Amino acid sequence: MGQKVAVATAVRLLGINRAELQSLIHDGELPAPDGMVDIDLLRQLYPRLALHDAPMLERVQLIKTTAFSRRVRSTLAPERDALEIQLKKRNAELSLERAMAKKYRGIIDQLCRKLDVMQDCRDDTQRRVVHDINRWLLEQLEK
């Protein structure tokens, strides 16, 4: 069992009337589940017909392929305008996040400078506290 086509398409491909094909289906010689018939079975029943050369069959296949890809694109891929809107939104969010990261980096740099100044004092307790804060800050930044 290979490629299938609708009964109406098979009638056009074969150049026969619909009643003749319906008779074959009714008599059980040509199964047509869901109104579709197998091309290979049609070739067996009508061996003199060159279905593989029929431009109609090629056109049917092209239409099926195109329709399927359109259906996939419409369900899976958003429209171009929607993508552009999402991209602009993401770019704006990225810009804000970069600005926040730059601000936080500046705050951390200022804190490090202040801690360096505080570490140069003569008080051992203050130096130990500043050393602990520096070590903790370094550990947090390396995570």
Structural notes for this entry:
This protein is 73% helix and 4% strand. It is built from 6 helices and 2 strands. It has 143 residues and is mainly alpha-helical. The protein is rod-shaped, with a radius of gyration of 37 Å. The chain has a two-stranded antiparallel ribbon with strand order 1-2. The protein starts with a strand and ends with a helix. The mean pLDDT is 82.
Shape: rod-shaped
Spatial order of the strands forming the largest sheet: 1-2
| Percent of residues in beta strands | under 5%
Distance between the termini: 59 Å
Helix content bin: over 70%
Largest sheet: 2 strands, antiparallel
The count of strands amounts to: 2
Number of H/I helices: 6
What string gives the helices and strands in order? EHHEHHHH
| Overall tally of structural domains | 2
Assign the structural class, choosing from mainly alpha, mainly beta, alpha/beta, alpha+beta, or little secondary structure.
Answer: mainly alpha
List the helices and strands and how they pair.
Layout: E1 4-6, H1 7-14, H2 18-26, E2 36-38, H3 39-45, H4 55-76, H5 80-119, H6 124-142
Write out key terms for the chains shown.
6 helices, about 140 residues, rod-shaped, two-stranded antiparallel ribbon
Gist of the model:
This protein is mainly α. It is 73% helix and 4% strand. The protein has helices at residues 7-14, 18-26, 39-45, 55-76, 80-119, 124-142; strands at residues 4-6, 36-38.
